[in-house]
Every structure is written in structure tokens, then in C-alpha cells.
Automatic annotation (TrEMBL):
HAMAP family: RhaA. Keywords: Cytoplasm, Isomerase, Manganese, Metal-binding, Rhamnose metabolism. Transmembrane segments: none annotated. SUPFAM superfamilies: Xylose isomerase-like (SSF51658). Pathway: Carbohydrate degradation; L-rhamnose degradation; glycerone phosphate from L-rhamnose: step 1/3. It comes from Hydrogenispora ethanolica. This is L-rhamnose isomerase. Binds 1 Mn(2+) ion per subunit. GO terms for molecular function: L-rhamnose isomerase activity; manganese ion binding. Catalyzes the interconversion of L-rhamnose and L-rhamnulose.
Amino acid sequence: MNHTILEAKVRDGYQTAREIYAAYGVDTDQVLDQLAGVQISLHCWQGDDVGGFEAGAGELSGGGILATGNYPGKARNGEELRQDLGTALGLIPGKHRVNLHASYAETGGDFVERDQLTIDLFQNWLAWAEGQGIGLDFNPTFFSHPKAAAGFTLSSRDPAIRSFWIRHAQCCREIAARMGARLGSPCVNNIWVPDGSKDLPADRLVHRQLLKESLDEILAVSYDRAQLVDAVESKLFGIGSESYVVGSHEFYMGYGLSRQIAICLDMGHFHPTESIADKLSALLLFAPHLLLHVSRGVRWDSDHVVILNDDLIALAHEIKRCDAWNRISLALDFFDASINRISAWVIGARATLKALLYAMLEPTDRLAAEEARGNLGNRLALLEELKTLPFGAVWHQYCLTQNVPVGTAWLDHVAAYERDVLAKRGR
Ligand SMILES: C[C@H](O)[C@H](O)[C@@H](O)C(=O)CO
Ligand SMILES: [Mn+2]
């Protein structure tokens, strides 16, 4: 369709939608302003299948996570990854952030051990982020390393292994704080360790005790909250840690609350029928901040590309209903090597934004009022009606006003980029 005609149709559709939502007491213009203020952290690791740029490495190994597929054109270095991220960011409405792992340090081909990392190795990332006007988030990398091969890092019984990983986490906090200071936006530094065992351990307590001590040592230095937000992420099981994960939900819930740091809830890290949405209103009563890893579990895998499904909508509704916008951070977390990697980012980010928009358009006050006066039939009827309101027209208007392609038009940009850039990369 011709662009001018499309634009006119989107604007017409929006005017109708605006009036319909107004009848429910929802101001769509205000909602679109609010949505424009939401930042999603795009995970750099979707761009190269969690390989990283360490000298002599570049492949994901261990850690109980796996990127399957062999789609051509993955980024092979920082320059390519930034170019890919920039392309994805240009197709996602709004201003967002980028989430780095420590293994994406650029060492110029030199081997730098993980406990020796400094902010200097992230100067290219910082300069790029400054140019884009975006913030960065960070993660220490406790996998794809010989010292993680035995399955335990911060909770290892071996004091030498443990102190190596403690030093790694300490330098990562320092790097993250410096990123936050330089970019003028708090950097969320998320600790996830893969520690666990394939079969039944005789002593579950010992590793949890060690993990607790290691974390305390790591967090002993305090940083300005305006620069660094500490988070800890739990998991139910991984490949090779089917019987026991040291950093379980109960462990980190206890740890995070007692230390008043952010708790990270990954949508793919719980039992298959367990939704993290219901956890928000409970944790927000006690935790200062939550980091939400937006992901999609499918059977054994916790990291499929995010789509607009019931889980995601339920999560967005809870953020809205708890009015938790300033107490949560949203970060994508999936890795699919079987499809175009830029499409993966764009699909996941757009789906997340759609869910947030859908929730923001909810007349929550009306639902709550029916509930408070005990008319649960009206509450249910309203919930059903809301599902068929013209949400898509509001989404299209958002894309239009944010100068990104409307509908599937972004696929043409990805196809051109694949032809002109990705196809020319070697494997
Ligand atoms: C690569 C990330 O650190 C990782 O995805 C982590 O957040 C996780 O969810 C592990 O399963
Ligand atoms: Mn995660």
C-alpha cells in the first residue's frame, strides 16, 4: 500500500479507536505518551547465539543453556553486533537500552581473564550507546569458561574457583557502575550463575551457604543507586542441572529481600504452568525493585523468542494493576539461532511493547470498582469486552508516530539488511 494512503488509514483507525477507548474512560493519547517512556533492555546475546568475543572462545558452552539453529549471518565481532542492534532498534518503536554480558568485552584479540576485566574493554560499547542516546545494562558471565566446567562457580567447594568468580563479579559491578555514571542512567547488573547438578545431591545446603557467602563478599562495596542496580536471578533447572539448582527462587527471594536488592524473575525459569505475573504483587510489597526477564519457555527450553501470548499479557496487566512502572526493569532474554537474529529481537521487543500497551489501555479502575462492590459478573463481562476493543489501531498509531514501519513493513527492512549485510558475512 502507498505510504500516504497507509498513513491516512492508520490515522483514521486511531481516531475511531480513541473514541471507543474514551467511552471506557481511557485516554489513548496519554497512554501513548506513557508507552514512549518505557525502556526495554535488548540483550546483545541474541545477535551471536551467546558466543561473546573472548579471544579463543566465541561459542556458548556449559551453563545449562543452549542456542539451537544455524541461521547465516551471526555477528562475529563488536562492530557487527552493534550494527545489527542498531538495525533492530530502528525497527522498534520508542527508545530502549542494550544489555551486555561480560563476555562481550573487546580485548583486541588479547586474552584477558574474566577477573581482570575493566571498563576500558567496553569503550566501544559506551561510545556507541552515547551516540544512540541509550543506556546499557550488564551481566557477569559465569559460563563458557574452564573454571565453570565442573558445574559450580560462586558456590564451588573449591576456594580458588570461588574466589576467581567473586573477583569476576566484583569487577563487573565496577564496570556496570561506571557505565551507569557515564551514560547518566542506572545500569542493572544481573547475577545469574548456572551452579547445580544433574543428579540428586546429598548436601544441598553446603552450596547454598557458599553462594550466600560469595554474594555477600561481592556486594560488600556499595555504589550509588543512580549508577548501579544489583539484581539476582533464579532458575528451576537447566541442561545438566536437572536435579538441583543452587540459586533457586526461594534462595534468591530470601537473599534479595534480606539484602534489599532487585530480584530478577525470568518468565522461563519456573514450572511450565507457573506464571511470574502473580508474583509481582507479592514481591513488590517487600522488594525495592524487580528485574523481569521477558522470555518464553517451551518444554525444556526457557529461551524461545517472546510472542504476544497469555503469559506476557498477564505480566503486563500486573505491572499496570500494581502501578509498578518505576519499580520494574524489563529485559529481553531469549536466543534463537534458527531464524534471522534481527527479526528475533524485533518480534520479541514489539510483542513486549504490544503487551504493555494492551495493559495500559485497560480501564483498571472500572474493573476494580466492580470487584470492590462485589459485582463479579460485571467484572468478567468487562474483561471479555475489552478483548475486542481496537487495540491494533492504537498500536499502528504508535508505530507511525515513533517513525518505525507499521505492520509487517519492517520485514522489508530486515530482508534488505539480510541481503546487503548479513549474507556477506562468513560463518
Ligand atoms: C545469558 C543470560 O545470562 C541468561 O539467559 C540468564 O539470564 C538466564 O536466563 C539463564 O537461563
Ligand atoms: Mn534470564
